[in-house]
Amino acid sequence: MTDQHQDPAQAPAQDEARNQQQVPTLYEWIGGTEALERLTEAFYARVRKDELLAPLFAHMDDDHPQHVATFLGEVLGGPTRYTEQHGGYPHMVSRHRGRAIKPEQRARWVELMLTAMDEVGLPEDAEFRSAFVGYIEFGSRRAMANSQPDVGPTRRTTIKKWGWGEGVPGEE
Ligand code: HEM
Which Pfam families match (predicted)? Predict the structure, then answer.
């Protein structure tokens, strides 16, 4: 059936589906793996020099920033490489377990991440920043909770995806 002959009752739903397909993922919007790796390199360079955070990360591998970039890429709707090649969600949780992250360390982690976002020139539109910062806030609070002594096993086994939420590009 051509567009000319489509049932008018179905047209709004089809328009909506078409519009939704045009909305890029946060992964595409940020600039893909290359942008995420720039972000995590700049971020962990700051972490290494930070008095509150450096002790927590004293033993991280050189490829830690790259692994976190891969994880974030999957969260933001990019390739599912962290799940396929790096142990997925359970591995990420296991790396936070038992570290007893303190509230002031989490807050500093978020602060340095926001600084690094500006440093590497991530998109500055309100829609992108609010969505990404929303995830950083969410993920850092989950990491802190899962790092506390005596916390039980997590129910989640797969990486949670994050999208635009209420602020989608192109809307006022
Ligand atoms: C959105 C928030 C966060 C995400 C997405 C995240 C992600 C990750 C991932 C993917 C790993 C494992 C990397 C690998 O596979 O090698 C990891 C490890 C780790 N994370 Fe996080 N993390 C977050 C928040 C935090 C916070 C708030 C802290 C502490 C303030 C923290 C401390 C650590 C530490 C200490 C490790 C282990 C480093 C090592 O290998 O020695 N994370 N994180």
Answer: Bac_globin
